[in-house]
Amino acid sequence: MKKDVDEHAERFDELAATYDESSGDQYMECLRLVVEHADPRGDDTVLDLGCGTGAVALSLADGAGRVVGRDVSEGMLSKARQKASDRGLSNVEFGEGSFREPNYDGEATIVTSNFALHHLDDDAKRDAIDVMAGYDPRRIVLGDVMLFGLPDPEAPFYDPEVDDPATVGVLVEAFTDAGYAVTAVERVHPQVGVIVAERR
Ligand SMILES: C[S@@+](CC[C@H](N)C(=O)[O-])C[C@H]1O[C@@H](n2cnc3c(N)ncnc32)[C@H](O)[C@@H]1O
């Protein structure tokens, strides 16, 4: 792990005020695909890990029964709560929780995560995927920085100082080992993608 959880939380606390203004095309496409593939029904509870300012959670609120967002940055969570309140959403709840310890013991029939898991090293990513699978959701949708080939050292999409993306192969294997079948892999960019995993 390039930075520990507290360092990531501190960094995102500082970024929270301007985070929503800094979205690039690949991020927006990844977000769109995560929302499209999550596709919750009215009886689903969605758990969104690394929820940030609520991009995924708030987009899913209309379709889902309930959405629970978890993040380590109070600054990002505070923005997410403000946006939920501004939109009059009453079925979305945001709270402190990490990939390792989401601090949520209710049901989750769908788990999502967008642009957050790449902050963890590969062993911690595997542990996080096991934690997601531990909720026994019918579907897990992961959008993230992930490597479809060797990263181009001249044009890295990510910042090696703070990001530690896995190969798509490592992620697919982790979902498979956790008892899930990978049903779709969407390549947004050679270093950005979305993986959809369904319970076997
Ligand atoms: C790039 S933002 C993405 C936020 C949101 N998912 C989105 O799509 O806009 C990454 C988020 O991951 C959170 N994060 C970093 N490490 C984490 C961890 N170990 N557990 C939970 N969240 C974490 C950060 O606080 C930050 O809000």
UniProtKB/TrEMBL annotation:
Alphabetically ordered keywords of this record: Methyltransferase, Transferase
What sequence ranges are listed for the domain Methyltransferase?
Answer: 46-132
Q: Does the keyword Transferase apply?
A: yes
Can you provide one Gene Ontology molecular function annotated for this UniProt record? methyltransferase activity
Biological process according to GO: methylation
Q: Which Pfam families match?
A: Methyltransf_25
Name listed for the protein in its UniProt record: S-adenosylmethionine-dependent methyltransferase
